[in-house]
Amino acid sequence: MSQTRVFSFPHVGNYCVVIENMLRHIFKNHKILVPPAITKKTLELGSKYSPDFVCVPFKYNLGNFIEALEAGANVLLQSGGGCRYGYYAEIQEQILRDLGYEFDFIRLFAKDMNARTLYRTAKRYGTNLSILGVAYYVLLATQMVRKLDLIEAYIRENIGFEVVPGSFERLHKAFLQSLKDVDNFRQLNVVYRDYLRKFKDLKVDKPQDCLKVGLVGELYTLMEPFSNYFIERELAKNRIQVSRYITATFLLFDKPKLRPKILAAAGKYLKYHLGADGTDSVERSMALAERGYDGLIHIKPFGCIPEINAMPVLQNISRDYKIPILYFSFDSQTSELGVKTRLEAFYDMLMMRKEVST
Ligand code: SF4
Known about the structure:
By secondary structure, the protein is an alpha/beta fold. The protein has three domains: 6-129, 3-Layer(aba) Sandwich (Rossmann fold); 130-206; 208-358, Rossmann fold. It is built from 14 helices and eight strands. The strands form two sheets. It has a four-stranded parallel β-sheet with strand order 2-1-3-4. A four-stranded parallel β-sheet has the order 6-5-7-8, with helices on both faces. Strand 3, helix 4 and strand 4 (104-108) form a beta-alpha-beta unit. The longest helix has 28 residues, at 131-158. The protein starts with 5 loop residues before the first strand and ends with a helix. The protein binds iron/sulfur cluster. Iron/sulfur cluster is lined by residues 55, 57, 83-85, 218, 220, 276, 301, 304-306.
């Protein structure tokens, strides 16, 4: 392998900005390559070399890796979780080696997310920083994730009501660009405060009783807009306030603390955890229904067992709270037109219900 290491990792929403920033600081003498933006070709590549039955986030990740390797990456990072996500790294590495690529593969599972292991891994791959230096940039990244999620939650709830078309999107791009250049906590706080003010200064025309829709479901398809056919953007076009609680902040920081409470909060609807994000989908759906949301959209990859388990429970919530739920199951063959048509029908139905109830 060449001396210069070129690190890369799969896309998930805009978190690539945070990961790139962190790796750039930790591996100052090496290159960081953000994989090319996801396109249909990414999914085609990933699907071509994936087992047929595997869930679609695996295919997107594999497509990202292939495109990154083709662009010169030679060190890939992948993490893993409690469901099939736990097998992603091992299988993807094998597939890529069988395809003839040469690279190092770093697997970061939950058990590796402690200062000592992270530092040892960083040292092996060429960091010049001390353990405190590495810890500093890991902590900076965690704070950056929080700020990014806070700003994007505000965007989600307001972009559908912007007075100047494109104003939120333009500012969002500028915010992401500024995040890339952050080097320390002070700069991060300045960028965050500055952009939060700028977003709040953007003119919106948002009625008190606007339609409110909550998104629940599997983490990857919720957080990666390409994989859900930009569902949040489509909803915003119809002047809908969109809320989504599954974010990296929730998964990394809030969920571990809340885990026992989430099951209890799901009350009569759940006795046991459903695995992955299934329990959260149930508890969040209940919470959103109680807050008077007009509708829910449940998103999952085809074949995602934890979310399949959640669906009958969501139907009970829908019946008890009289809240409509639209279910989407995405795979590499999903038709974009079909998604849009179902969204439009859902929107029309929500509007009719609203008109009847006022
Ligand atoms: S949560 Fe579902 S889609 Fe995601 S890896 Fe697990 S089984 Fe696959």
